[in-house]
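Lay summary. Proteins are chains of building blocks that fold into shapes, and those shapes determine what they do. In this project we predict the shape from the chain. Here is one chain we studied, written as its sequence of building blocks.
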Amino acid sequence: MLPARAYLRVLARSAQTYRLYATEAKSWNIGLTQSCVDRINFLTKSKGHQVALRVTVDGGGCSGFQYVFSLENPPPNSEKNENDDDNYFTREGAKVIVDNLSLAYIKRRKN
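And here is the predicted shape, written in a compact code that computers can read:
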């Protein structure tokens, strides 16, 4: 277990890193393949209402990270605002939502 002072330093660095990611994420974009767009649009049509694919990067997995994909109802106005942790990407009606920290990991991954 970390001593209290060391733990606070780790939290402070994490908060600073997170703020950096949140600032950078405002100008990032991700590419959506045509098959991804088609599948999201198919799911939207079959459910009868707009759905969005949420992509999250979690700790764990063989290489230290695992990608989690889930469907959710997007907010009515899927536009980035200053207090929102999510980034919204749309292509041909298909919506994808990625939080700031996950987006930073996705953008920094090696091919």
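What the prediction tells us: The chain has one domain: 4-107.
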